[in-house]
Amino acid sequence: MTDPLSTPADALKSRTQAALRREPSETRPRVARRESVLAVAGFAAALGVFAAVGGFRDLGAPRPPQLIAITLVGTIVLAIGSFRTSARRAGLPASREALLAVLLGAPLALFAWKTSWSAAFDANIWWPTRPGLLCLAVSLTTGGVILASLLAARRHSDPVHPHLSGAALGVASGAAAAVFVDLWCPVGHPAHVALGHALPMLLLGLAGAWPGGRLLALGVAKTLRKDRNPAAD
Amino acid sequence: MARYAAGDDTAFSELYDEVAPRVLAFLLRKTRDRERAEDLMQQTFLQIHRARGRFIPGSPVMPWAIAIARRLTIDEQRRAGRTARWFADELPDVPDPLAPCGYHQVSASQVAGRLDAELARLPATQRQAFELMRLDGLTLEEAALASGTTVSAIKSRSHRAYETLRGALGAVLGRS
Fold first, then answer.
1. Which single residue of A203, B49, B157, B161 has CA 20 to 30 Å from A48?
2. Do A72 and A185 form a contact (C-beta atoms < 8 A)?
3. Mind listing the pLDDT tens digit for each residue in B46-102?
4. How much is the ipTM here?
5. Who among A16, A89, A90 is closest to B45 (CB)?
6. Are A62 and A123 in contact (CB under 8 A)?
7. Are B10 and B53 in contact (CB under 8 A)?
8. Closest chain A C-alpha to B96 CA, distance in angstroms
9. Which residues of B touch A25 (CB under 8 A)?
10. Domain annotation for chain B: domains and CATH numbers
């Protein structure tokens, strides 16, 4: 597979080892601990937002317990599925196809699931006073804190397509937020669900793309620049 | 790599000996410049070092290393404002192997030159799949990981590239 031309010189190995000694790096146990702490903090903050806006409520129009259970299970499965599909494989990001499936499929799946089951239980009535703007705000806030913690946890981990990974993480965070928002909001009208529940997932996906491209991409190692140009300090 | 990720710095030497020749071969092909290739390889190992805590034990190292090297190459070319001249533009004048020559013999270097030129004409995704599998020696799964796509996509791209190259080079190889 290799020929003498592509055999690195010993001097290069020594230079590389010398550079590594000056470059900070975290070991696997430390990274695992930090990622866990950040993920738990993100979900705890989301739970805090949920509690702060009033927690579970029915707004005077109780939903059948079966409907609550079905939509809740659906959103939980969707959130877990989104995170699993966009999870890293062998230390590298998920495939472009898997990430696009999360990006486009999860909001549509949430919309279809919630509106169809609401229709099945005759709970898809239009509430003129609740077009979905409050749900939009709560979804964005809840999903935003989860997304921020996950982006921080996965910093500098994607050499392949960081923007797309960030977008998929945004949608997955939106799916996690949808679990809380579904408990908070009993409205099942399609227009409300589209604006207040599905749209924020897409918006979080867009929001994740830009910082994702910056935060998830490889960082810049300063060591080599200093080696080449010591006067630059 | 698992030992190195866990914090055993002495494992680096072994890791380097295993990974460096293939990474350097990859970078030499991409840059066609020994100095730049070595520079990028050093940066690749710096990135591996920085991200070692994210390595998942039991995972293959090569796709990860190649993905990092590839990203650094692209970033370096963008920074330098170079256009992505992967192959054909930087090739020296290579005699057309299809042109009549002495005894209708085609030398190995001519075939290699023609292969480079044909590779340059392939769509980027097909070229990448072909290079990762045929030139860098990655398996289907490893090539899919390194390029951030699925195994089936890599398989079909590599196959299409192979068929295109076989069609284009068949006449040359037939003459030789």
1. A203
2. no
3. 888 888 888 888 888 888 899 999 989 888 888 777 544 554 444 444 444 444 444
4. 0.77
5. A16
6. no
7. no
8. 26
9. 49-53
10. 1-84 (1.10.1740.10), 87-176 (1.10.10.10)
